[in-house]
Design brief:
Elements (H helix, E strand, L loop, with lengths): L1 E5 L3 H12 L1 H8 L4 E6 L13 E3 L3 H5 L5 E4 L6 H11 L3 E4 L2 H18 L3 E2 L10 H8 L5 E7 L2 H13 L3 H11 L7 H4 L2 H15 L9 E2 L7 H9 L2 E11 L4 E11 L11 E8 L3 E8 L3 H20 L28 E11 L4 H11 L4 E6 L8 E8 L2 E2 H12 L4 E10 L5
Parallel strand pairs: 1-2, 1-4, 2-3, 4-5, 5-6, 8-10, 10-17
Antiparallel strand pairs: 7-9, 7-11, 9-10, 11-12, 13-15, 13-16, 13-17, 14-15
Helix pairs in contact: 1-12, 2-12, 4-5, 5-10, 7-8, 13-14
Length: 432
């Protein structure tokens, strides 16, 4: 099988070197050799020895090459990459990509064309790096109705929260180090504000629940305003803060949300630290399963790219053009569950409220919560941390609908004894 590689950066370089290094093993696994016959990149990668392989700076030369069976898209973005993928599919070529933004935003259109042309568009590498979670959902768990899934699917955010917890550092301080280490981009918005995770979660939810991709409906909330005190208070309550992507099947729709979450320190996913990723999937037959590993990196992500290539080669070996459906369900069997508004979700909450150290303030706050049907599970008043006459009230609530918490929060912030905004973080309930 002859492939054209577009992009020779971190993942592209890893893919090239893995195909060369494990060439015999790969051929043995799929029944035929996989050969790179053309590479398109603006810059050369010093770790890659092209050794006579055709090189071009124009990625569309690869699409136009009649010898290329599979186009590997590793250039990123959603403009040129979309044109590249659509033209490759139109030309009857299979595509392997690590581009989660492209799939989350334009996957419905891309997969429709791929079905029409009888080719595969594979994207395992776009979600959680080297962790084969898409394959697990589509194949290993195919007999299950997936009830929910939750994951740490952005290593940058996980690294920042881990450092804040372990060393008591501020978000800004750790972010600067993450940028210096190459974990975060110069503009870290996609990572720390949850957009990258929302792209991945959108794809996971579609595969899990058999729904069209609906990235525009995903709720995203970042971690940039998490304070060291929040991390510390969460620990005192027996929780850790993680930036989670959560998708849950309901009778009337699907929850699709990315936000900081308090997780019991006893839960396995609470122990996933640093830049590592993990996804928990709950199926009605198998129960909960955990998928853990490197969520990014040259060779880890290349592992997923090459695995997709092997799947395509195996199908070709058997005389087939298309294997498992892209989203795990036949196109005519996708269901019409829509993404529900975040106001409709239910959750327990962590609240941190800065109040004046006056008698009766706690009673006022408790009354407002009660009026909105919100019960307090635990509460602590940090008198030792008085600052400018203010002390933090920190509490955990029982499960409540988000819109009720919104109304209660507005009422609390309107109290003259309360300073600034109420800091709130959702708390994962037991079934999560």
């Amino acid at each position: 099988m002859k492939v054209g590689l577009c992009g020779l950066g971190t993942v592209g370089g890893g893919t090239f070197n893995l195909l060369v290094k494990n060439k015999q093993e790969i051929a043995a696994r799929c029944g035929m050799p996989i050969d790179i016959i053309q590479v398109a990149s603006r810059n050369m990668n010093p770790t890659c020895d092209l050794n006579g392989i055709a090189h071009t700076e124009n990625v569309f030369d690869v699409v136009r090459n009649p010898e290329v069976d599979v186009v590997i898209e590793l250039i990123g973005g959603t403009t040129v990459a979309k044109d590249l993928v659509m033209q490759a599919v139109e030309a009857g070529k299979h595509v392997v990509t690590a581009n989660k933004a492209l799939i989350a935003e334009y996957g419905n259109e891309i997969f429709d064309l791929a079905r029409e042309k009888g080719v595969t568009v594979a994207f395992e590498a776009g979600i959680a790096g080297g962790i084969p979670v898409i394959k697990a959902l589509r194949e290993g768990l195919a007999a299950n109705e997936i009830k929910w899934l939750a994951g740490i699917i952005n290593g940058t955010g996980n690294f920042i929260l881990t450092e804040m917890r372990d060393k008591g550092r501020t978000f800004e301080d750790v972010l600067k180090e993450a940028q210096e280490l190459g974990y975060a981009e110069a503009d870290p918005t996609f990572d720390v504000e949850g957009i990258d995770a929302a792209h991945k979660l959108t794809i996971l939810a579609s595969v899990a629940f058999g729904i069209p991709l609906q990235f525009e409906r995903a709720y995203t909330e970042g971690i940039s305003d998490i304070a060291p005190s929040d991390v510390r208070y969460a620990e005192e309550f027996g929780y850790r803060i993680k930036h989670l992507g959560i998708a849950k099947r309901l009778e009337h729709g699907v929850e699709l949300r990315v936000h900081p979450t308090l997780i019991s320190e006893q839960h396995l996913i609470a122990k996933v630290d640093g830049v590592m990723n993990a996804v928990v999937i709950d199926g009605d037959a198998v129960g909960q399963t955990l998928y853990y590993g490197a969520g990014a990196g040259s060779m880890a992500t290349a592992s997923a790219v090459v695995a997709d290539l092997i799947d395509i080669a195996r199908a070709r070996k058997q005389g087939s053009t298309v294997g498992v459906p892209s989203l795990g369900h036949n196109a005519d069997q996708l269901n019409d569950l829509s993404v529900v508004s975040v106001e409709e979700i239910t959750s327990a909450y962590y609240l941190r409220i800065l109040v004046q150290d006056h008698p009766g303030v706690l009673a006022k706050v408790a009354t407002i919560l009660s009026e909105h049907g919100i019960n307090i599970e635990s509460i602590t008043q940090k008198e030792t941390e008085e600052h400018d006459g203010l002390i933090p009230l920190v509490m955990l609530t029982h499960v409540v609908q988000e819109k009720n918490m919104n109304h209660a929060t507005q009422a609390i912030e309107a109290l003259e004894e309360v300073a600034g905004q109420v800091k709130r973080i959702r708390v994962a309930v037991s079934e999560d």
